[in-house]
Design brief:
Layout (H helix, E strand, L loop, with lengths): L2 E10 L2 E11 L4 E6 L5 H8 L7 E6 L2 E3 L4 H6 L2 E4 L11 H6 L13 H15 L14 H14 L4 E5 L7 H16 L3 E6 L2 H7 L2 E6 L2 E6 L5 H9 L17 E11 L5 E11 L3 E5 L6 H9 L5 E7 L2 E2 L5 H6 L2 E4 L3 H5 L6 H6 L10 E2 L2 E2 L1 H14 L16 H13 L5 E5 L7 H16 L4 E4 L3 H7 L2 E6 L2 E7 L4 H8 L12
Parallel strand pairs: 3-8, 3-9, 6-7, 7-8, 13-20, 13-21, 16-19, 19-20
Antiparallel strand pairs: 1-2, 1-4, 4-5, 9-10, 11-12, 11-14, 14-15, 17-18, 21-22
Helix pairs in contact: 4-5, 14-15
Length: about 500
């Protein structure tokens, strides 16, 4: 099925999110929609999917003009969408999620769950997904949950499939698997719109590339274009794709973890006897495949894990057992890996979210127990400019921002505090190349100010670019701590639990 968008325009008040956009996607083609956060990519796809109504323009399928009053109409016409943040119900099984909204019934009006199971198995076998139709979605890894979203779309005979930032929450291995799935879908004749800002992924799978900037199509490119060319089209200027930093001049160990063990409610070890230190003025990157204890380690540092033994010391003060507010008050800045669940309050404004984590008596925002709105407004406007948060107003609710702009709000809040330690888990997840350049620069500046920095990332490119030393985690333990210039293939082996011969410790 051929998809054609003609002159699509979508306005939100004075903001023109899409400005007369034209786009054509052929059957059996992967057409990449590339652009910065807030460029209008997701808005355009929400118009296509019937979530928004265009102010101007037309949607055509195989040359026929379509009118979608909602997503149901779009699905009926053969359009499926895999959202960045999954639209699944955790307490339902895979089969129940797949049939939700399209329930069929059998004898005496009973739901045909068996038919849904068979459908899941058929699609799963066809594409090698290995998804159990009876598994609870909440128990599945993120990569498998995404496959469930794809099965949902294919079960409704989607001929046009939209992937909206599909790799933002995936590990490198899961990303590679998704690329293979997209190629299979292409070979089956599906027309694919792939929304992303990750240049490596674009060049790996795209047949054609359309670049959107500030709501307008600013050019088309071939996958043979260089990263620098694509980045320049996206941002409208040349972008430094490598991290510029001088060699670290670390001081004494400022943050020390000794024999740290974290248990779950059943007594199973999530973090197993981990010890490391971070010196003042250095970046320690923690690498590993998602799910090997990194999340629980950072949560233990913040005081979010209840069953912790060992020592966690900052500037000689033991933080273990302290309440989260006291840990933050000790000067710990924290960027959580899940910004929607742990980093923001979606119903709060941008300005209000920038105030979170502040101590009750902190000036100039609080005086005699009263919030100083003038200072908060000035501060919020300054941070919106400094971090290039794309929004109409500081009064916009954080939940209405794009994922990348939500991440910028979290970073702006944490990096504007007086820090003694900065812990950033997946700090550039969901960000575009221009924003990544900015965030990496700020992280290096934090290091150069003499602050110890911990960066937890599943992106090896990011780990290698930022780290002065690298600790690799596997099954809750640290396989080894190595220099920041350790080759990627060696790091890959360590992430699989091996410590290659000849690789020394950088402890």
């Amino acid at each position: 099925m051929q998809l054609e968008l003609r002159g699509i325009t979508k306005r939100f008040g004075s903001l023109v999110a899409n400005d007369h956009i034209d786009l054509t996607v052929e059957p059996g083609e992967i057409h990449c929609l590339l652009g910065e956060n807030g460029a209008g990519k997701s808005t355009l796809m929400n118009v296509l999917y019937g979530l928004y109504q265009a102010d101007e323009g037309e949607i055509l399928l195989d040359g026929q003009v379509q009118r979608f009053a909602g997503p149901g109409d779009a699905m009926e016409a053969g359009i499926g969408m895999v959202h960045q943040h999954f639209m699944l119900i955790p307490v339902f099984t895979v089969a129940e999620n797949v049939m939700l909204g399209h329930e069929s019934t059998g004898f005496a009006g009973k739901l045909d769950v068996a038919g849904a199971r068979a459908k899941v198995r058929e699609i799963s076998d066809r594409f090698g997904f290995h998804v159990d139709p009876d598994a609870l979605v909440g128990d599945l890894p993120v990569g498998v949950q995404q496959r469930v979203e794809i099965i949902k779309a294919l079960s409704r005979d989607a001929k046009v499939l939209v992937f909206d930032e599909p790799t933002a929450v995936l590990t490198p291995q899961e990303t590679d698997e998704l690329m293979g799935i997209m190629r299979q879908l292409k070979e089956s004749g599906t027309a694919i719109v792939f929304i992303t800002h990750k240049l490596r992924e674009v060049r790996e799978v795209a047949d054609r590339i359309t670049v959107i900037r500030l709501g307008k199509v600013v050019g088309e490119a071939q996958p043979t274009a260089t990263n620098a060319e694509l980045a320049s089209l996206m941002v409208g200027r040349s972008v430094e794709l490598t991290v510029q930093k001088e060699p670290a001049t670390p001081g004494a160990p400022a943050f020390v973890v000794q024999n740290l063990t974290v248990l779950d409610a059943r007594g199973q070890k999530l973090v197993d006897d981990v010890s490391f230190d971070v010196k003042a003025g250095e970046i320690l990157a923690i690498a590993g495949v998602q799910g090997n204890g990194q999340t629980e380690l950072t949560e233990a540092i913040l005081g979010l894990q209840p069953h912790v033994t060992g020592q966690i010391r900052l500037d000689g003060r033991d933080l273990r057992g302290l309440a989260v507010r006291k840990v933050l008050g000790a000067g710990v800045g924290f960027v959580p890996e899940d910004r929607k669940e742990d980093g923001l309050v979606a119903e709060f404004t941008i300005a209000e979210n920038l105030m979170l984590d502040r101590t009750a008596g902190e000036t100039p925002f609080v005086k005699s127990g009263n919030l100083q709105l003038r200072h908060l407004t000035e501060f919020a406007k300054e941070k919106v400019r400094e971090f290039d948060i794309r929004t109409q107003s500081i009064e916009t609710h954080a939940g209405r921002l794009s994922g990348g702009n939500q991440q910028k709000v979290v970073l702006a809040r944490e990096l504007s505090r007086k820090l003694r330690l900065f812990v950033a888990a997946q700090p550039t997840r969901g960000l575009d190349v221009g924003s990544i350049e900015f965030v990496h620069t700020r992280i290096v500046e934090t290091r150069d100010a003499g602050i110890p920095v911990i960066v937890v990332s599943t992106e090896l490119d990011e780990v290698v670019a930022l780290a002065d030393r690298i600790a690799v985690m596997y099954r809750g333990g640290i396989v080894g701590i190595v220099p920041g210039d350790t080759p990627r293939d060696v790091l890959g082996l360590m992430m699989a639990g091996e410590h290659p011969a000849g690789v020394g410790s950088a402890a």
